[in-house]
Amino acid sequence: MPSLLIQNGTVLDPSRDLEQRMDLLVRDGKIVATGQNLGKADQVIDAAGCYVTPGLIDIHVHFREPGDEEEETIASGSAAAVAGGFTTVCCMPNTKPALDNEAQVEFVLRESERVGLANVYPVGAITKGRAGRELAEIGSMHDRGAIAISDDGVGVADASVMRKALQYAKMFDTVLMQHCEEPTLSGGAMHAGTVSTILGMPSIPAEAEQLMIARDLLLNRTIGCRYHIQHISTAGSVELVRQAKKLGQNVTAEASPHHLLLTDESCRTFDTNYKMNPPLRAAADIKACIEGVRDGTIDCLATDHAPHLPEEKELEFQFAPFGIIGLECALSLYVKALIEGGHINWMRLIDLMSTRPAKIVQLDKGTLRDGADADITIIDPKIKWTIDVEQFAGKSRNCPFQGQQVVARAVATIVGGVVKWQLARK
């Protein structure tokens, strides 16, 4: 494997609280040194003016394979990931069929290896067929390489099933990722509030999320499994997590770009690219989520990348599917929501997008220490660009941020010491 030298960049490594202009040397897929005068290498990248960071990690994506390959595949999703600066992603199990057994887990891992772009780790289903009634093969999926368990797209409604799932997750020391939505309060198309009332749109109240979080935290209080809340979206949810952490509970949470930037006011346009689950909430919820990121209540950032066909998103708002894509513009959107707003700095952002996610799913990544896997993202923090979905590497185009001018972008993505994507510079 050719050696690689990254020169003149500012190394930004939250795992060591290190921010310093220095070079980084890679050999045989591993980081072997950071510093000055590191010698020669087969390949040299000039990172002047850029941050050199641990590879970005997204623990919540949907790659649709098997079953809906016309929307996204592991290959196209991996291409989108590296184009966005992500070296590692964790794909959700709501495929057709669901990722609920060891054979499906092995398929994802083999296909990821065949494609050879980003590291793609499968998340196994909590229940068979994600139906919420009978536990899936949690132990065997874990042994085969499932990084976590989740029924994402639906929450586990049955408290008895959920309690057993928490116990099994504790037994195998895996993280349980919950889509928190009480089903008797779901079924709507947008957030329950003034806008939904004016539009006459069926809605999903904030309590749908909060009730399931409260129930699960209560169930897990004596079990103590690693419990992770996906795409948190309400002020009440953030406060529940904040109080649980004060009590010492083993809980983490993630936020997505759209829940930090957009409100339900966008739904007045009836543009289905503003339809997602959980739905876009009120301005007070955005404020609370940003504060949750700032004070550490929210542990990491994840895209919830959810591709859909144009003909699906062209349906009436009420009948169109939930979800938007985000891998290729997430970094810039987080910069807009969190750094430009003065809430956090770059060190904290990389911590939220790399080091912390790695810890949540117990991956030996998210660091630039000597001996670590050479998963590296090089970021130009000042580059200005316009989001253009027609230029995206992924298959789908359902993005509400189309045409927005943003700042900061990954300019090179290195996985296992190999440059997998590099921005063509003018």
Number of helices: 12
Main sheet: strands, sense, barrel: 8 strands, parallel
| CATH class category label of the largest domain | Alpha Beta
Anisotropy-based shape: globular
Low-confidence runs of at least 5 consecutive residues = none
What oligomeric state do these chains adopt?
single chain
* Total strands: 20
On the 0 to 100 scale, the average pLDDT is 97
Helix content: 25-40%
The CATH architecture classification of the largest domain is Alpha-Beta Barrel
- Name the strands of the widest sheet in spatial order: 8-9-10-11-12-15-16-17
CATH superfamily of the largest domain: Metal-dependent hydrolases
Radius of gyration: 21 Å
State which percent range the strand residues make up: 15-25%
Number of domains: 2
Explain the overall architecture.
The chain has 426 residues and is α/β, with parallel strands linked by helices. Helices cover 29% and strands 23% of the residues. It has 2 domains: 4-51 and 373-422, Urease, subunit C, domain 1; 55-360, Metal-dependent hydrolases (TIM Barrel), CATH 3.20.20. The two termini are 29 Å apart. The model has no long low-confidence stretch (mean pLDDT 97).
